Amino acid sequence: MTAFPKPLAGKRIIDLSLFLPGPYAGMLLHSFGAEIIRLEPPDGDPVLRMSPDLHRILHRGKTIERVDLKTPQGQARLASLLDGADALIEGFRPGVLARLGFTPERLRREYPGLVIASISGYGATGPYRDHPAHDMSVLGVAGYFSLPSELSDPIARPNIRLADVLCAQSAALSILAAMVQADKTGQGCVVDTSIFEATAAPVLLSLLARDDADAPPEQIGLVMADSAPYRCAGSGYVCIATLEDKYWAGFVDCATPADSPLRDPAYRTRAGRDADKPGLARLLADLFLTKPREYWAELADQHTLPITPMWRGKELLSDPQMQARQLVRQGCDEHGAFDIPTYPAAFDGVRE
């Protein structure tokens, strides 16, 4: 039977990072077989105190040592682990690792094949290089709020640590690419990445393609009344995304009576729906309030429409697609069994 691929088996990665971006990047690389050895400070990773369950998920299968890198003994331990290692992940502010005695020059000289991944808030250069950074502060300055997502233009943080997660995924891909290059050439490199850059990159993908970025929300093409969440009867919500005219036609055909104003010919095209966003939003809000979330979800399923229930809390774990795709599996450590997210891709049908 085909097994989940472990192309990084035999690779050793030393991880000095704390909180989420670096550890999550290491978790992704561990999924592909890399050995991850973490050196945490004597009092441990702050995540262990903030959320023991998250710490357990992030660091499953990793080796964790408590080491004081400010001491000669701790520095000697790191040096010994770097001998034969393939990559080093560090999440200090720029310059801190050098002050601990591990300058780029020393690392290049003593460990020429080593990939050094420096994950900071804003990168090793620029006016923000020494600024403290966490998910929320980076979201603002990296432009996350530069384009509205709804007509009401609510300013609210994402419901996940989005900037941290984007950085972790970008860092893991960069580390993987750098290790492939090191295998070919025998020479490592410094991967200088940041939460700021990883967040700004997808923002720029949308922002640079828009001529209407500074217009009111109702005049921005990305903001659509029929691509939004709506409250249903009761306490549930649905998300509708009838971007294409064919889906809009299918929706009004099965969901509205013959005299519904939503059947106005003006709404049949994307341009027509966008020409009256506030009015269309009011009509949709009134419609969805007439039935519970379950009704709309079943209707969408019957007619193959892009309308989905909005899950709240751990309702998500009962989603049939979530279960069919095996996005959660059971892990086990010295404390017993626990649920973990699997890697978000299958290889020849096999999950992690």
UniProtKB/TrEMBL annotation:
Keyword Transferase assigned to the entry: answer is yes
What GO molecular function annotations does the UniProt record carry, in alphabetical order? transferase activity
Q: Which UniProt keywords apply?
A: Transferase
Concerning InterPro entries, the annotation shows: CoA-transferase_III (IPR050509), CoA-Trfase_fam_III (IPR003673), CoA-Trfase_III_dom3_sf (IPR044855), CoA-Trfase_III_dom_1_sf (IPR023606)
Pfam families given in the database record: CoA_transf_3 (PF02515)
Protein name per Swiss-Prot or TrEMBL? Crotonobetainyl-CoA:carnitine CoA-transferase CaiB
Species annotation = Thalassovita litoralis
